[in-house]
Write a structure and sequence with these properties.
Blueprint (H helix, E strand, L loop, with lengths): L1 H15 L11 H6 L7 E3 L5 E3 L18 E5 L31 E4 L27
Antiparallel strand pairs: 1-2, 3-4
Length: 136
């Protein structure tokens, strides 16, 4: 929770200006320009902003679809892409080796802010793991 509050504090710091637990805008234009941190805060019916609870120690990929997440982009072999998130360690995604190397990618959207202390990637046991991958 400390990391979550720190992240919210960093996101909101430019607008705080000494109001502690308040976020204030001097003009309507400032309000319209501010982007709510996706999945981190919610706007209430009363017009206030409050942080959203972030669950810990869970498999965020297993229920990403419930939160609007899923496979957001895939460069090749799109038919196997959903297997990345099916919970079965015996299935998965691999690029079509006949495609250009630039198309050997998959993007997974977890659909919300996640408190992550560990990311577990499982590579195919009978082949070399990808030597280059990005975790954003």
């Amino acid at each position: 929770m400390v990391n979550f509050l720190l992240a919210i504090g960093i996101l909101l710091a430019p607008w705080q200006k000494g109001f502690g637990d308040e976020l204030r805008f001097a003009t309507a234009a400032q309000w319209r320009q501010w982007e709510l941190p996706l999945g981190a805060v919610e706007l209430t019916q009363e017009g206030s902003i409050r942080p959203v609870a972030v669950r810990r120690n869970n498999n965020a990929a297993s229920d990403a679809v419930v939160f609007g997440g899923g496979i957001s982009r895939v460069g090749s072999n799109a038919l196997e892409a959903p297997e990345v998130m099916d919970g079965d360690e015996n299935t998965g995604w691999g690029p079509d080796l006949d495609e250009r190397a630039e198309d050997w990618f998959i993007e997974v959207d977890l659909g919300r802010v996640v408190s992550a202390h560990r990311v577990h990637l499982i590579f195919y046991a009978h082949g070399p793991p990808f030597e280059i991958f990005d975790l954003l």
